[in-house]
Amino acid sequence: MSSHTIGEIAVWLLGAGVLGFVLGWLVRELQVRARRRRAPGPVMKAVPSPEPKPEPRPEREPEPDPEPEPEPEPEPGPKPRSRGVEPPSADHVIKGNTSSKIYHLPDSPAYARTKAGAWFRTEAEAEEAGFRKAGAPRRNAAKKAQASKAPTKKKPPEEPDGA
């Protein structure tokens, strides 16, 4: 038979039962606390591991650039209304703003800040192209001013019928 008494065996069984109860309670308590911590805060997501960097490829030697074709020669005679920032020739000194149809002479205060959409040699060329001189009244405004200055006839005051 065994060398342990019934009392000793009972104590061991009672200790094992208590230990099982305590471990069960502890596991349950830890699960409840973990849920409480997760509920109000954001859900933890797994952080992806960084991808390994690809091995660098050996560099190729750059291919030589093909020689550019020579640019064609510009036409000999510049046009009076050529577009661009630079004048087509030294003779073209009058700047024309194509959106407002106003031209500026070199002595104009706005000459430096005007973006030239057209260049002219003379004021006559600019006016032939439909531009007006900077500071000159608009054509419609001039007509309105002349119409307002025209004498108007006043009506004589009406006499009341007092019969």
UniProtKB/TrEMBL annotation:
Region (Disordered) location = 36-109, 124-163
Sequence ranges of Basic and acidic residues compositional bias: 52-63
Query: Does the record carry Iron-sulfur as a key word?
Result: no
What parts of the sequence cross the membrane? 6-27
Acidic residues bias locations: 64-74
**Protein's recorded name:** Uncharacterized protein
- InterPro entries, alphabetized: Ada-like_dom_sf
Q: Which UniProt keywords apply?
A: Membrane, Transmembrane, Transmembrane helix
